[in-house]
Specification:
248 residues, mainly beta, 7-stranded mixed β-sheet, 45% strand, elongated
């Protein structure tokens, strides 16, 4: 299980296990993680879980959300990333068992560590609620209501892979065996291919420019991928391919 280590002015306050699909961070008491400071917006940021990985999104806060010293709008978190909100620091850590190895495509394609897909028909664990008290600088916990019942089995998708078209890695292929695969160059342009019940999708994560599919920018929304689509990302062209004869 992933966790956050919460610090205030450099002093560690508490470890917060992460559970649940959406975890809000802010000053108001309805948030799952409450930071009691006027410099923190009412709902400052949100963590969104996607098959064991967490996306961090700033909620148009007044003073911004920072990861490793850089202001962010939306970013996929990696092990030991430092989240800065006002005077607070939240260090994101993953269970070592969920950490994978770097990908094969050197610095052209970054394959982020991804956790294995969860078992079907098992509800998520009850999220952890942490509230910071001003007087004691301590945390109290309160469980949230259990999540809704799981949905019915989704159809099995065919195996997918990507093939690099240009550059020094032209011709190399990567089979998509996990529910999330991160592509791109950190600090330049990063996107995620996600395997969803309805198919594969490409989502922008980091960078001023959006990736494109067949020459068209995908913008901020997840875009479905179809067989033979060409993805342009961080100066690299990649072809997305499906093998309908092999279930994923």
């Amino acid at each position: 299980m992933a966790k956050l280590i919460l610090s205030l002015d450099g002093k560690v306050i508490r470890e917060i296990p992460l559970a649940g699909q959406r975890i809000t961070i802010g000053r108001k008491l309805h948030n799952q993680i409450v930071l009691d400071s006027r410099a923190v917006s009412g709902e400052h940021a949100i963590l969104i879980r996607q098959q064991g990985e967490y996306l961090l999104e700033d909620r148009q806060s007044t003073n911004g959300t920072h990861v490793n010293g850089q202001a962010i709008t939306r970013i996929l978190l990696h092990h030991n990333d430092s989240i800065g909100i006002a005077r607070y620091q939240l260090t994101y850590q993953q269970n070592p068992e969920t950490l994978g190895k770097a990908g094969e495509f050197e610095d052209t394609i970054l394959i982020a560590p991804m956790a294995p897909a969860p078992r079907r028909h098992l509800p998520d664990a009850v999220p952890y609620t942490a509230t910071l008290q001003t007087s004691t600088s301590a945390l109290r916990s309160m469980p949230l209501p259990p999540p809704p019942p799981p949905v019915a089995n989704a159809p099995i998708l065919p195996t997918a892979r990507i093939r690099v078209i240009n550059g020094k890695n032209a011709g190399r292929e990567l089979e998509i065996t996990k529910n999330f695969v991160t592509l791109g160059r950190q600090g330049v342009q990063v996107a995620v291919i996600s395997r969803r019940p309805q198919g594969y999708c490409l989502t922008h994560v980091e960078g001023r420019r959006y990736p494109s599919i067949n020459g068209l920018s995908i913008g901020t929304q997840a875009k479905p991928l179809t067989d033979q689509d060409v993805i342009e990302l961080a100066g690299v062209s990649m072809r997305f391919m499906l093998d309908p004869d092999l279930p994923g």
